Predict the structure.
Amino acid sequence: MGRGYLVVEGHGDGQAALNLVVRLWDDLRLPALHWADPIRGKNLHQERGVHKACQLVRSKPDVAGMLLLRDEDDGCPKNTAPQAATWVRGLRLPFPSAIVLAHREYEAFFLPCVPLMAGRKLRGPGNLERPGLIPGSVFHGNPEDIRGVKEWLSERMPSGYSYKPTVDQLPMTRMIDFETLRRSEPLLPCFGSLERALRFLAQQILTNRHETYPR
């Protein structure tokens, strides 16, 4: 079997998104699949950027499937994810693919889990340790309504510290609890989309089909 390829965008830590995908794949008990190091794309909100990233993945000799995961900012994933999938579908890739958009930011995945993260140190690459969220931190409301999650996280770190995506995304991602996300109220639609996308890819790989999610 080939490898899964993850395409990401932005200035965060690509290893954080990889950690999220690999852990969730295992949590869903999907067939064993090795995921390659993430590929960082540019302009993934545009057709030309998506095409360029897909062609780069297509050049790999061992692709089993591709997942493109990016922030959607102020757009509506219900509209933009199917549009991006249409761009990918037109390339007739010889492997299955999926598009998942985090509305509004990747850090939205953290918010339902803030009480689990509060008071815990953040151990990042190279065992660099930083203070995390102050004890007692909680989030109330809809995680997808907030604009500026990074700033929200910074406001709940000790004085003199701020949230740094390139350093803090990975250790915070490691603290994400999937059952907490599944039970969150309101539910986090982008997490549901990610679960469905991974199940879709697994089924496509097993049946040797090359379709794109969302349909």
Q: What stands out?
A: Residues 107-183 form one domain. Residues 60 and 182 are 34 Å apart (CA to CA). The beta strands are 3-8, 34-35, 39-40, 63-71, 97-102, 122-123, 129-130, 212-213.
